[in-house]
Structure formats: C-alpha cells, structure tokens
Amino acid sequence: MPAESQPKGEKSFRGIPVSAGVCRGKILVLGRTRPAVTRLQLTEAALAEEVNRLEKALVQTRHQILDIQHKVSQRMGAEEGSIFDAHLLVLEDRTLLDEVMRVIREQKVNAEHAFHTVAERYAATLSAIEDDYLRERATDMRDVTARVLNNLLGLEEETDLRHLKEPCIIVSHDLTPSNTAQLDKRKVLGFVTDVGSKTSHTAIMARSLRIPAVVGLKDVSGQLESGQYALLDGLNGVLIVNPTDQTLYEYGQLILRQATFQQRLNDLLAEPAVTLDGHRVLLNANIEQAADAEQVKANGAEGVGLFRTEYLFLNHERLPGEEQQYQSYREAAAALKPLPVVIRTLDLGGDKFLAHMTMPTELNPFLGWRAIRISLQERDIFRAQLRAILRASAEGNLKVMYPMISGLDELKQANALLEEYKAELRQEKVAFDENLEVGAMIETPSAAMVADSLAKRVKFFSIGTNDLIQYSLAVDRMNEKIAHLYEPTHPAIVRLIKTTVDAAHKHGVRVTVCGEMAGDPVLAPLLLGLGVDELSAAPSLVPPLKFLIRRLKLSEAQELGAFALECESAAEILARCQELAYAIAPGLFDNK
Ligand code: PEP
Ligand code: MG
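Above: the input record for the complex with phosphoenolpyruvate. Below: its predicted structure, written as tokens.
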C-alpha cells in the first residue's frame, strides 16, 4: 500500500476491508432519517381496523421482499438472493407478530407504534450480543421494520439509491441488504459504513457486485460531508478524504499494477492448466444455479465440479418439483456442453434450512439430519431430484454425486434408488444418459477411511474439505471462537486426503477437491502434491489458480506433499505451502 502520510488536508479513516478495489470520487453522506412514528390512542372500535392495516402492510412488505429477492438472485446469484430468506422469516416470526397484536389490543395504540416498539426492542437485544451472526439478525430486523413502517405510513423508501444523479462514494451509518441490492453500479463507485463485519450480508453483496467497500469505520458518517473528494481502498480498508497529489499518484501506480496483472490472468483464459513439467490439472468451478454458467465460461473453467442444488430449494417458496429441477439442470448442461457438470444432490440441514419444510430442532445439526440422510428418508424429494438429473443427463455432459456419505450402506442405497428411477424412465421411454457417472463426496473421516470400498462403486470422488476439516478436527466451521483450530493443513487432514487419493487411484477413480481449500493458491499445490487430479472453486478463483499451476512443477508439489505427510505440525506445513506459493507466483500476493 502507498506510504501512510497525513499531509495537511488529507485524512485517513481505517476500517474492515470487505470488498477489494480502489475508486475515487465525491462522497455522498446518507442521513440516518427514520420514519417518524407517533403514538396514537385508539378507541376499542378502531382496533379491528388497526390489526387489518398491519396485516395488509405485512403482506405488502412480503411482496416487496420477494420482488427484491427475485431481482437479486437474477442479478447477483442464488446465494445473494437467499440473504432475503432471513427477512421473510422476520415477517413469519409468530412471537414477534403476536406481541405486536397484543400491544395494539391491550394498549389500544396504532400499528406503527406497536410494531416499531416491539421490533426495536428485539433488535436492540440482538445487537447487544457479542456475536456477528446475531448482530446481522438485528440488521435484518431493522431493515424489515423500516419497510413495514413505510408501508403503514404510505411513505417511499427512506434511502432510495436507484436514482443518484452522479457517480459517488456512499458514506452511511449502515446499509441494509435491501439498499445494497438497489445500488446502481454505474453511479455507486464504492461505499463505507460506520458498522458492519466481513461476514455481513451487505459485505457479501458488495463482493458480488465487485464494488470496493470498507465497513466498521466507527463514526465516519458523522465526520464527513457530501461533496468532499475521497479515495477508497477496499483491499486495505482505508478511506482517504482530500487525498494529496502524491497519494493519488501512488494509488494510480497501484491500480496500474493491478490492471496489468489482471490482464496477465485474462491472457491465460483459453490456456490449459499445465504445470511446468507437463502435468495437466483440470480446473472446474462451483456454481449455485444454471445462470452461473456464464461465469464458468468467462473465467476459463473447464466444467462445473460442484453444482450446489440446495439454492434452488432455498430460493423458492415451495419445494421445486421434478419439472422445475429438470429445466434448471438441463439449462446448465446445455449452456456448458461439452464441458462436464457435476450435480450434487440436495445438501440440506447443517446451516441450510428451508422456510417451507419442517426440520427438527437438533442439538448438533451438522451431525444430524443432513444431506444424503434426508434424501434417503424423504424418498419423494430424492426421487424427483434424481429423475430430474437423469432426464437432464440426456444432454450428455452431466454427472451426479452424493453429499456427506458416511459409509458404504448409504452409497449402496443411493445407487440402488438411482437404478430404480432409471428403470422407471426406461419403462416410460424417457431418454437419459445410460453412462451417467456417479461420484461420492468424501467429507466425513469415515468416508475417507473406507474410501477403498466406496471407490469400487463410483467413478469419481470429490473431497469436500470444508466439512472434512470440521468433522475430522471436531471444529464447527461456523464458530468464530474456535476458528483458529480450523486448520486445513492439520496433519490429520493431509493424511486423510492421501488415504482417499490412494484408495481412489488403486481403483482407477479420479479425485477432485471442491471445498474452499481448492481455491486457495497457497494450499492448491499441497493438494496436487498429494495426488489430487482436479480442483473446483468459485469461478473468480479459477484464473489465479491457473496462473499458479502454470508456474508450478508437479515435482515441487510432490516434495511439498511428501514433507506434509511426514510433518507433525499444521503451522510448519502451512509455512512450507506459503513459501512455495510466494516463490513461484509472487504476483498473486504482491499487488496489495
Ligand atoms: C465441502 O464441505 O467442502 C463442500 C464443498 O460442501 P459445502 O461447503 O456445500 O458443505
Ligand atoms: Mg460439504
């Protein structure tokens, strides 16, 4: 980053970088105006109408949120769209709504006052807890509350970012996901907020939109004025107001270096991922919906290694039936033909729930009713999905895999059902790919330990390191308190991957890694050195991975793998991985 000086007039504010990129322009400070809510005393006779008004506003709010969700899913992707599931849940929260109704009836007050008071008390309680997740729920609640109040009062949205006159950097106390969803990329150069965290939904959206963003700048919105000129560095988390010519020059150089490097990555798009000593690595992408196929091609991936189908389920009000799923899988297959597309069957449970399906409350949801376990019990759901996949396989480039296989029986049962549905389709004279390849995800330690048995019954393995790490090390992947224990380079993980690869290769089965480890340029050489054949990562991570692989020798990766298998320390293995990656591809880590 350019030197940190504070010449007269120039002022820097530091926060949490959440979305990379540099931009400069005029600041627009958004006020913190909320709809004014007054308390009105009502007569007994007016109460029924008041409850009616509230119900209408709730329905109207629900439609608005569904509309935003739909637009966001189309524009940014299914994962971003699913952010609004949390908003819809607020509107379905019986405890909250019952209490609001009770306040209206018992205190004989207007709906605005009752809703505002109750919801704000809930939100204040949530935001006072030291937990990013719960704080995010408080933001969701305030976002929905503002919407309900606007609808009750017949007001326009308080912050309408759709009609900005000129390009600007938004400075605000907070930006709700609904506000962020409306940002016009041509007019919003970047944004900064007083509050927020890296995992907040607003941050996720900024990354999706590729707008530079910095959050957690404390009271920046109170210190700045609209019209001031500023430079925003979303990579290092700095907002520089009134930058000097020297600062602008230094940043100009940085932007130039980043652009040149991006061009180098772009130049490789059509090239294969081959190591310097001639070893070919297949680089695939992970997607959540058929529309993501564009991103797969744009980033030069060679297929889809993981189609997470649950987003199709999470984003709809009802369970998607066979036909709807068929259309979606067929669309992905057709868009990418002849590139292969691996469809993963439903991986619900854990942290992925459906608003429209009753899931049991479990003490340990990640160890509970999840993924293939649900599919094998909820036969109608599994049947619809497998039939949809089989029918779409007529395109010729689909493969299917099962998540969270923990032993041979589950694999055998799933395969038997697949055969049963194939027989049905033959009977119905419906076309499908008779050679559809079946794979198993290896994401439990037990699956890795019996990989030799599983390998006899599948064509490929896909190692889900996200879960393999959490289950092997007994470290909840969502728990920040123990995040330091979540170590991809733990010797146990290295050995489990090696056990899996050896068992697979003995039976002529190929091995992919589709967890986050695969997309990390520091860790990818270790995976290749352990014998992994293919990697699958978010589309945008494919070009840097290719850049790295084309500067790597397989022999170096194998030496790293051999070292890791002997080593007893996660930290030492990680240090060796870093040493290799920094040495062969400094450009990936330099331009910061
Ligand atoms: C994994 O566990 O590594 C994986 C790819 O699956 P998910 O992240 O969807 O659980
Ligand atoms: Mg998983």
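Notes for the reader.
The longest helix spans residues 47-75.
The chain has a mean pLDDT of 90.
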